[in-house]
Amino acid sequence: xxxxxxxxxxxxxxxxxxxxxxxxxxxxxxxxxxxxxxxxxxxxxxxxxxxxxxxxxxxxxxxxxxxxxxxxxxxxxxxxxxxxxxxxxxxxxxxxxxxxxxxxxxxxxxxxxxxxxxxxxxxxxxxxxxxxxxxxxxxxxxxxxxxxxxxx
Length: 152
Known about the structure:
There is one protein chain. This protein is mainly alpha-helical. The protein contains seven helices and no strands. The protein starts with 5 loop residues before the first helix and ends with a helix. The model has no long low-confidence stretch (mean pLDDT 81).
């Protein structure tokens, strides 16, 4: 059997299976005891391979961000929130997700300690991941996306 015959034997995942390809690394990343950049690199590779993966990743990240802002208390613990912040920073710095992914954050409302920790960690890790030119590129991509009216 040749490797070129594998796609015919195992068709690419569709629908729910395709979405799970993104959810699993995000969930695993949040469950790690310490930050593991492997998951960010894996997600960057998946997003580069398919626009659908990029859309799914943004929805998945939005769900996690909203979990920080729940009225009944955050659904994430401190370790998970820090891992989420580092994942978001790495993906943002390297172009995996646009800065507009953070549009679901309620910046104008009071934030709890966990949300504050998350966004402090995000900003520190973003600055560590990207040099001055990289930060300029992140901002330029955000401005270009807003100008085009495209939120994806």
